[in-house]
Amino acid sequence: MATRSRGPSAGFGWLNRGIRMGFRHPKPLFGGAVLVMLAALIPSFITLPMQFHSLHSGTPLPPTIFGWIMAISMLFGLLILPLYAGYLQLADAAERGLPARVGDVFKPYRDGKALRIVGYGVAMMAIYLAMLAIVIVATGGGIAHWYMEVLTAQANHQPPPATLPDGFWIAVLLIMVLGIFVMGFYSIGLGQVTLGNRSVFGAVGDGVIGALKNLLPLLMLAVGSVLIWIAVALCFGIFALLLALIGKLVGPWVVFVLIIPLYIALLLAVFTTMFGVMYHLWRDVCSDDIVAGTAEATAV
Description:
This protein is an all-alpha fold. It has helices at about 10-25, 25-40, 40-55, 65-95, 105-110, 115-140, 140-155, 170-195, 200-215, 215-250, 250-285. It has one domain.
């Protein structure tokens, strides 16, 4: 399937359209975001009681329990992936002016496409692990040993190692570069397997090619996202400071009454923006209905 390369400024366009998408279609997209986020919290409802019990009792989690927690989180992560795909379908319907209902996030399960999407998730997980292994090998094995020490210290409620391993900052830089690539790779691939009806391997191939052809706009997207996060963090911090002053005058309960809805609204806005960016990235790079003149397209 053809993939297109876009100019560097396209990254800012994806971010702009992703932010505006949720506010153009608030009812289906914010409602769907609530359902998907609640489903994503299910693993926490299962594993948090065990972690709290370990914390209050002062005894570390046995390796078997820790392994079960990781396995449960991974399994639920794969089972929730079709809901992410359903949310992309919901966004696609809303943007095209088609009927869009909140319950459409479960559509991949109803249509029998969940297994293919889970297969895509398994493939992506294997690719992530392979990329991480390449970074560790390229920077030396000290990082893996250091990370195991960190996990052991956390499990035993001890302070982490005081020194960083050799090659740590090089590994961080490589992971950041890979993260930018994977951001585009994952978005394009999930769009292809969900909206483009591609096979798992076809979607992975399109994701790799599409991300490689759009590294510059992906970099601009990452820069724009960081700048917006800084602005949002500053605004949120100023608002929290004002609430703290109000709480001293009126009562601390006012802070909780106002800050919790604001925090939930911020989470929903971040969720809809993230999937809005993913959708418009896929649509510009792979979709067949791009308006003429809006993309500098080169097909493969």
